[in-house]
Write a structure and sequence with these properties.
With 108 residues, the protein is of the alpha+beta class. It contains three helices and five strands. The strands form two sheets. It has a three-stranded antiparallel sheet, covered by helices on one side. A two-stranded antiparallel sheet has the order 1-2.
Length: 108
Amino acid sequence: MPKATRGNGAETNVEDMLTPVDATGVLVQCDPSIKAIINKIDAARNDFIVEDLDDETVLIKETKMAELKERLKEVSATASVSFRETSALMIAKELRDTVKEAEESESD
């Protein structure tokens, strides 16, 4: 059996250092921003995430993957609409400012 040295210098079996996860799931690797969305979706009922591994990796219940994908699509569509609305408002403001500047320069 392979041996490992702990910080205190004592040797131990590698098997003793491993923590088994008793679950079946799908390993998902994604950007931290997407993982944050997954965490937020899971926070309501804690029924998607089996194990939160690191900033970019999470183990998802295999039976919940299809539902999670749908929820992510919904969030993406909502974010896309919000982004478009925000962009449209910014463009409208810029146009108003441009028209206002033109009117002010004509009256001078």
